């Protein structure tokens, strides 16, 4: 019986992580969930949030995902994220600048503008990312 969980996190840009871990906690759309080795199979959607990779009870890695899917099989956990970033590599000043720019564009266009939904989604994503960096 395996004592470690095989975990992979993949975005369209690249594979951010693949390896053996003790525990993964992810932001499901129906609530946060944890996966250990030999977990029952299931599939769920993800919301914007932090995926925590744990060794024993210590968080070893924090990855921010922008939506996606999580698939638990007998082989392990695979997360297919729309977008993902390792929080240890995020430039806070850059996120602040991008957030301010997106808010300004949204304000200039208005709530009924042709790009309002896209701009609102970007503001929400950057706000969630900024919050994850702080916490």
Automatic annotation (TrEMBL):
<comment type="function">
    <text>Produces ATP from ADP in the presence of a proton gradient across the membrane.</text>
</comment>
<dbReference type="InterPro" id="IPR001469">
    <property type="entry name" value="ATP_synth_F1_dsu/esu"/>
</dbReference>
<keyword id="KW-1003">Cell membrane</keyword>
<dbReference type="GO" id="GO:0046933">
    <property type="term" value="F:proton-transporting ATP synthase activity, rotational mechanism"/>
</dbReference>
<dbReference type="InterPro" id="IPR020546">
    <property type="entry name" value="ATP_synth_F1_dsu/esu_N"/>
</dbReference>
<keyword id="KW-0139">CF(1)</keyword>
<dbReference type="GO" id="GO:0005524">
    <property type="term" value="F:ATP binding"/>
</dbReference>
<dbReference type="InterPro" id="IPR036771">
    <property type="entry name" value="ATPsynth_dsu/esu_N"/>
</dbReference>
<dbReference type="GO" id="GO:0012505">
    <property type="term" value="C:endomembrane system"/>
</dbReference>
<protein>
    <recommendedName>
        <fullName>ATP synthase epsilon chain</fullName>
    </recommendedName>
</protein>
<dbReference type="GO" id="GO:0005886">
    <property type="term" value="C:plasma membrane"/>
</dbReference>
<keyword id="KW-0472">Membrane</keyword>
<dbReference type="Pfam" id="PF02823">
    <property type="entry name" value="ATP-synt_DE_N"/>
</dbReference>
<keyword id="KW-0375">Hydrogen ion transport</keyword>
<keyword id="KW-0813">Transport</keyword>
<keyword id="KW-0406">Ion transport</keyword>
<comment type="similarity">
    <text>Belongs to the ATPase epsilon chain family.</text>
</comment>
<keyword id="KW-0066">ATP synthesis</keyword>
<feature type="domain" description="ATP synthase F1 complex delta/epsilon subunit N-terminal">
    <location>
        <begin position="5"/>
        <end position="84"/>
    </location>
</feature>
<dbReference type="GO" id="GO:0045259">
    <property type="term" value="C:proton-transporting ATP synthase complex"/>
</dbReference>
<comment type="subunit">
    <text>F-type ATPases have 2 components, CF(1) - the catalytic core - and CF(0) - the membrane proton channel. CF(1) has five subunits: alpha(3), beta(3), gamma(1), delta(1), epsilon(1). CF(0) has three main subunits: a, b and c.</text>
</comment>
């Amino acid at each position: 019986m395996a004592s470690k969980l095989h975990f992979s996190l993949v975005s369209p840009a690249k594979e951010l992580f693949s390896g053996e871990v003790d525990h993964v906690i992810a932001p499901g759309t129906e609530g946060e969930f944890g996966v250990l080795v030999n977990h029952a199979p299931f599939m769920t959607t993800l919301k914007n949030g932090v995926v925590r990779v744990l060794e024993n009870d210590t968080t070893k890695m924090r990855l921010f995902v922008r939506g996606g899917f999580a698939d638990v099989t007998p082989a392990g956990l695979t997360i297919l994220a729309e977008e993902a970033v390792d929080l240890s590599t995020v430039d806070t000043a850059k996120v602040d600048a991008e957030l301010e720019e997106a808010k300004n564009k949204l304000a200039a266009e208005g709530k009924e503008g042709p790009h309002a939904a896209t701009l609102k989604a970007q503001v929400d994503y950057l706000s969630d990312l900024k919050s994850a960096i702080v916490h």
